[in-house]
Amino acid sequence: MKIDPSKPADLSAQIAGAIRDAIISGSLIVDERLPSEAELADHFDVSRPTVREALKRLAAQSLIRTQRGATGGAFVNRLSFEAAQPQQITTSTLLLSMNAVSFETACEARYALERACAPLSAARRSPDHLATMRAEIHRQGQPGLTDEAFCASDVAFHRALVDGAGNPVLSYQLAGAVEAMQPLMNMITFTARDRARIIALHEGIADAIEAQDAIATAEALTALEQETQTLAQSVFAARAARR
Known about the structure:
72% helix, 2 domains, Four Helix Bundle (Hemerythrin (Met), subunit A), mainly alpha, 2 strands, Arc Repressor Mutant, subunit A
């Protein structure tokens, strides 16, 4: 593990990066205890506060965990796909907001990614995944449901479809698409959408999943994408007319 001492301004970041690289390469394995702060300070020829800051960076990324006591110290953490999803969602949200990604582009990407799950979800979905989708459809039809609750249910419905693929890598990759892009799209379209129409489209998706029909699932998702794009166009046209 090496750093560049000629760049003192980011020594803690360099140390965190060196340790992270060692974890990724397998030089440091899951549950292995890291050298002590003093040993790391000697190894990198830096102060212990600099090492401590590097370890805080790694802990914030869930790459290490700390334990107290005689057998304590810093240990390589087993990072699960589920634990990493919030970071994926946050990063996706920031990328969309900071780079002025158009609604059309975000919508296209979001549904293209979800359609990739269609054949796997149709083949592998469990009764629980299907029950969650049906429960969210029922919830969406309840009188008096707020826009915020409807949007949350919308996300939960699509989360169940994605998780039904039974592939944790896909679930992780699509966390940003479903839980970052979907809420942002809902914020734009919720004023124009017909809930009954959205519910009917959701029912079509759930029916296709229940029938284990991959083609029908993809087609139903495409129909929902087209509805979403149409809604957005009407919202943007109305905004332009008011200016």
